[in-house]
Amino acid sequence: MATVSFWGGVGITGSSKVLIEDQGWRVLLDMGLDRPQTDLYHHPVSPRPGQELHDRLKVGDAPWIPHLFRKDAVAGTGLAGNSDGKTAVFITHSHVDHIGLTGWIDPDIPIYAAPETARVRHALTVVGEAAKKDPSFELIFAEQVMLEGAPPHIIPTAEAQPVEFGPFQITRYLVDHDVPGASGYIVETASGRVAYTGDIRLHGRHPEWVKRFAQAAYGSEVLVIEGTTLGNKTRDTEHPATEEQVDKTFTDIVEHTRGLMLITLRPRNIERIESFMRIAEKFGRQILWSKEFATFLEAYGLKVWRMDYSPAQLKKIQAHPERYIIQMWPRDIPWVMDLPVGKESVFIQADGDPKLTSPAGRSLQHWLQRYHIPLRTLGTRGHGSPEAIHKIVEWIRPKIVYPLHTHAPELLLPEPPTIRIVPEYGRRYPIG
Ligand SMILES: [Zn+2]
């Protein structure tokens, strides 16, 4: 009989890993970097460079799954490495808590994902390579750790086209999250279907994709759904703004700002970035990107303008502040001393770094006060509200639902006849 087990995301947000097994065959859905289950590794205490996987496995901080990892990476742990030809990995999206351990997978094991996910992962490799060559190049992506191990070879899969693997048939469907290519999977097993949402929301740009996934998954034996917001009741989680509203607010600010605009965004929310670039262009502004951000976006395939803070460029901006929007990292903030800023300019915090509550965020606010720059915040979350999560369960009406990727799985309360089971780490649950 086929089984499902959970090797990450159990009682925590992130590090998702869903394993489906039958007759020695394995399909692993997601391979997120582990949040420390043991509490042994907390910054600045981290696994030793180059042997991170070994150091995590040794203390129970990485999934104990045989024939998944490269043999050299698990040497000395007692875990069987190298492919036995019966394991395949499928990735829902390119956030580190879903893809972060792929660098350790044995290269003979196929890793499938959306083409966009492969492109984002490639772009991160390019960022990592650039940082090796340029010492001033800061790896400011909070998710830089995903560059652990060797760059994985990801096989792009077409949407809604089943992949056969051993006794399984695995089909990818696009869903909506704040990164391109975000997908859910449906795995046909001999004992029934397992649907896995990955990270999901209904307030993004493509709620219809989520509906289509739910239709395809309707009546599944098992549903594994993320529940990030379940235990986190705030206005933002319960009534998130839509990406459309975010675009509208941004448009409004661009339309009414006469001076220079400064902005901070999340690199992987590429659809928002593309949308903001279009809006800026419409109002005669160019977004100028830091070299780290530009390297990433260019490697993904976008054409962008770079901010290099050269005297010639600063002169241009001084002459026409109304023609530019500068993307800033926390590192860049002191440049406001040399930029034409003041009451007519604006700093937009659009889900980027620094978070306003962090020490760097407080420092940012002092800089803005000192130079009389108004601060605007806008943005929305990548995760569905508790109501949206319940709605998706209702649409799919599985026999059993396992809430994952949440610290409050017990707050998922499905309508009968669906039964909710709070999963335990590493325990195998029969399907059907
Ligand atoms: Zn996640």
UniProtKB/TrEMBL annotation:
Pfam families: Lactamase_B_2. Gene3D superfamilies: Metallo-hydrolase/oxidoreductase (3.40.50.10710), Ribonuclease Z/Hydroxyacylglutathione hydrolase-like (3.60.15.10). Keywords: Exonuclease, Hydrolase, Nuclease, RNA-binding. One of its GO terms (molecular function) is RNA binding. Residues 14-256 form the Metallo-beta-lactamase domain. SUPFAM superfamilies: Metallo-hydrolase/oxidoreductase (SSF56281). This is Ribonuclease J.
